[in-house]
Amino acid sequence: MAKFRNWLRGPSGALATVLILLVGIVIGAGALFGAHTAIKSTENTEFCVSCHDLAPAYAEYKESPHFSNASGVQAGCPDCHVPEPFGPMVIDHFQALGELYSSWKGTIDTPEKYDEHRLEMAERVWAYMEATDSRECRSCHAEHAMNFALQAPEAAKRMQEGFANGDTCIDCHKGIAHKLPDMSQGYKKTFEELLAASEEQGAKADDLYVLQTKPYYGSAKDAKSGEGAIGQILAATHLHVLDRDGDALKVKIEGWQQDGVDKVIYELRGQRIFSATAKADAVELISREGTETDSDTGLVWHDVSLEGWVDRTDLVDNLEDLWAYGAEMNNASCGVCHSAVPANHFLANQWIGSLKAMERFITLDKEQYRFLQKYLQMHASDTGGAGEH
Questions:
Q1: Binding residues for heme
Q2: Residue 139 to residue 132: CA distance in whole angstroms
Q3: Residue-range definition of the domain harbouring residue 195
């Protein structure tokens, strides 16, 4: 060992050390250059579309303004999907290995499979872009360089409002380079899962919530036969089970009744949030537990309860699952043209008119629309988090 140290201190050792360092530098530089070349060779549209799985995406891209436009400025795959900063770029390339595995498995190797996963893939990209404040969009589209006078008046107005509100590009600009997915896929799948779960939960739990509007009856016999309904219970209304008779449940509904409006039970005092309705001959079944006057409006409200019979279908035991369904529906229906307005942006009663004004832009059936309205109202700024309990 001593001889080796002495040799290193001598001319021969010093020369060897220098040579080793030089060789190390050359090897390191070569490795770095090779890695850089390999990475850059994957950052072009030709490489991206060489995978046949992406044929549908490429076909859609060629029909978009990112491929062809009046100015001739073209954005390719890496411009939108590969970060420029070194750190995020390296992470992105490592994450892409998972896509190679999916390609090997054939996850999206047919147009049908691609469409089946379109929403899932789109939501993943949208979430990433939102988390990075649409970094890749902003690498080309700079707010300070925009001449709003050259934009269409409505577009300029919306753009400036978005910047002022802190919105990010992807909040409004979805479906630019690729076809929008069927946004209803997510919440429809969630609904089917809730529907399947309700078959078991309705038979066991004592505190249940209505999944979709259902009739109630004056007797177990009528509930079993489905004839002679005396009213309707709206979605997300709480039911406490008092008794069971086979597949029929005797339940209690609690809520509020405005003086003079005898056929409607509301969730909260002073709020037009519907829980149940009663036919004229069933109004007498509604029991009044107390009376209060709303100090803000002067209206008289009665604390009420109603007992009736229902069948055990369309009933779930977890309100949070229902609200998750509502949140998904809200994002899918109201978050395509702009970022979805938070439920607490409006008062509960204001949501009735606000949602009505947007009804023509959404594709919900009447039942879904009523559920969405109740979800928003129960999470409004003045319901005090009532929708979370």
A1: 48, 51-52, 77, 80-81, 137, 140-141, 169, 172-173, 334, 337-338
A2: 12
A3: 186-316
